[in-house]
Amino acid sequence: MAHDIVFFLAPHDETAAATRLQGPGEDFESVTCRSIEPDSAIAEWDMYFEEPSAEAPALEQLHAWRPWPEWVTAPLNDGVEVFALPRRLTRALANASSAELEELAGRWTARLWSEDGDDMTEDDLLAVLQVVARLAASAVNTGGGLYSWSF
């Protein structure tokens, strides 16, 4: 099931976990993306930087990727999830070139299109990745973390 997701910057896991009930809100630098699976997106981005390729991974390859994003709070039955992006992914996004972000956005778009077709998100995925990369750079510079909150 696809979710609405907010990628946001927080100083540490405890602060990110505290967003669970209400979401990050305006107190956190963030970007919102609609109708995607947060854990699959995070895993795909991580896979891209560890094993660069313009081709979208097969679904089985994506689901076998490790490390899978870790919850900051235990999941409950309400559908809300808060994930911490892996530190290596945060560093990779912070250091990503424009060309890398464009290639990743193209690959991500192709995978989502193949899975969701006309139900795919209408968000500009390159623009989302560009903001996430800026948030990652802030996380690296401040010692904070990059997180996702979804419902």
Characteristics of this structure?
single chain; 151 residues; alpha+beta; five-stranded antiparallel β-sheet
Notes on the structure:
- This protein has 151 residues and is of the alpha+beta class.
- 46% of the residues lie in helices and 18% in strands.
- It is built from 6 helices and 5 strands; from the N terminus they run βαβααββαααβ.
- The protein has a 5-stranded antiparallel sheet with strand order 2-1-5-4-3.
- It is globular, with a radius of gyration of 14 Å.
Largest sheet: 5 strands, antiparallel
N-to-C span: 10 Å
Number of helices: 6
**Number of extended strands:** 5
Portion of residues in beta strands equals 15-25%
Stretches where pLDDT falls below 50 for ≥5 residues?
A: none
Strand order of the largest sheet: 2-1-5-4-3
Task: Supply the helix-strand structural class.
Answer: alpha+beta
Q: What is the residue-mean pLDDT, rounded to a whole number?
A: 89
Order of helices and strands: EHEHHEEHHHE
How would you briefly describe this protein structure?
By secondary structure, this protein is an alpha+beta fold. It has helices at residues 13-17, 38-50, 59-63, 87-95, 98-116, 125-142, and strands at 3-10, 30-36, 70-71, 81-84, 145-150.
